[in-house]
Design a protein that fits this description.
Blueprint: H1 3-17, H2 25-36, E1 41-44, H3 51-61, E2 66-70, H4 77-81, E3 82-87, E4 92-97, E5 104-108, H5 115-118, H6 120-127, E6 129-132, E7 135-138, E8 144-149, H7 162-165, E9 170-172, H8 179-190, H9 205-214, H10 222-237, E10 241-243, H11 247-263, H12 271-282, E11 287-288, H13 299-309, E12 316-317, E13 330-331
Parallel strand pairs: 1-8, 1-9, 2-5, 5-8
Antiparallel strand pairs: 3-4, 6-7, 10-11, 12-13
Helix pairs in contact: 2-11, 10-11, 11-12, 12-13
Length: 332
Amino acid sequence: MNLDETREVVIGALDELERVIVGKRDVVELVLLTLLAGGHALIEDVPGTGKTLTARSIARVLGLDFARVQFTPDLLPSDLTGAAVLDPATRELAFRPGPVFTNVLLADELNRTPPKTQAALLEAMGEYQVSSDGVTRRLPEPFVVLATDNPIEYEGTFPLPEAQLDRFTARLRIGYLAAADESAMVRRSLAHATDPAALRPLVDASGVVEMLASMDGVEVHDDITDYVVALVNATRAHPSVDVGASPRGSLALTRLARGAALVAGRDFVTPDDVKRVAVAALGHRITVKAELWVRNITGDAVVEDVLGTVPTPGTRPAARPSARVPNTQWAR
């Protein structure tokens, strides 16, 4: 699958998803960009804003297997990854895969389970495999974790460790609908037009893998790479920050910017693509100094600040005879 075909699928998926998800095209697009980056997304918002609907609908449109796990205080790691059970027919132990063996895993309310179970996802998210009873098993391709948490409830919850947050390519918030969009949502619900099962699959798992591979065709100029690194380094030197974004943040920001360029119809990344996804890619990786929490200074605010202070590279793509010629020459 080439870049044009990948973009056609993404735009088609966005149009199809608008049949059931009202007024949140930008959020849905960011989830799709995360998938194109080969990463995972943390959807952080209050209940009832459509987090589960978004995850289930995206899986349906892309023809991917979907599994939902409700994270609770008594959930065990084996409930997620699977365990060896006795087969009555053979009287031997056989591995029974857990729900993590899927394409799209909705980890609902991830912060309601203890750190031991949260950690069970670390290997899956980072290495795309699960180790159990001394055996390592590969997860299906593609594998995407869409996790949710509720930022306003603290009783009975466990903060996500920094190592886990860092494994999410992007963090996003859906937010409330505008009044007109909410009215449209209610009308669609009354007309029974919000069922994800009614969505038309545009591709399948193997097609999504080809889409991921095609993203290598989106060129990233050295000036853009330096700009990404400068932004990440600026978060580390920011006076409000204890711990800045990690090198994994540089990779995530670059990959998300590639997806943004693709949706915009280009095969090269511009500084505007980087700026568009910077908050989603870096905000959750930043630890703000404790004494600044009361002033409501967040990682997102730090990223917005460095976007305004780090010089933007003054580059533009050189004139090319064809849009499909590799973007290797840039002009100032």
